[in-house]
């Protein structure tokens, strides 16, 4: 990024976190700038890779995926040289919603969505635990999740 973020940039980001499809005229009104300024600032945030993509949030239950889980995966110490390839494997699984490379007792945490508990059991057993790199897994069901409020800055931060 070529410049520090100011209060207008932060306001644009905060507004887009709530609705990335907001029309530019409404975005400009919410952050109290002209439409041309809002458009220029937004383009700059994208060009500078501050905003990396615009996505659609999908109700996965509407797709028949009723069960979500967090799978904590620990690899064998001898598989440490395969971390990146294993991460790619996890990312390419159609059940994967998010893949986190973490520290602590696990190497990865994978957020998955599947049809039901039997499908989850088979997925963990057949797709994850059967891999030779995997030392152990620990699966937690997600009962409910809600998005956070987005990134907020303290007054005076740039």
TrEMBL record:
> Which PROSITE patterns does this chain map to?
HTH_ASNC_2
* Alphabetical list of Pfam families matching this protein: AsnC_trans_reg, HTH_24
Mind telling me which Gene3D superfamilies this protein's record contains?
Answer: 3.30.70.920, Winged helix-like DNA-binding domain superfamily/Winged helix DNA-binding domain (1.10.10.10)
Q: Which SUPFAM superfamilies match?
A: Dimeric alpha+beta barrel (SSF54909), Winged helix' DNA-binding domain (SSF46785)
Coiled coil start-end: none
Q: Which UniProt keywords apply?
A: DNA-binding, Transcription, Transcription regulation
Could you tell me which InterPro entries the record lists for this protein?
A: ArsR-like_HTH, AsnC-type_HTH_dom, Dimeric_a/b-barrel, Tscrpt_reg_AsnC-like, Tscrpt_reg_AsnC/Lrp_C, WH-like_DNA-bd_sf, WH_DNA-bd_sf
**For the HTH asnC-type domain, which residue ranges apply?**
5-66
Q: What is this protein called?
A: Lrp/AsnC family transcriptional regulator
**Organism in which the protein naturally occurs:** Corynebacterium breve
**Taxonomic placement:** Bacteria, Bacillati, Actinomycetota, Actinomycetes, Mycobacteriales
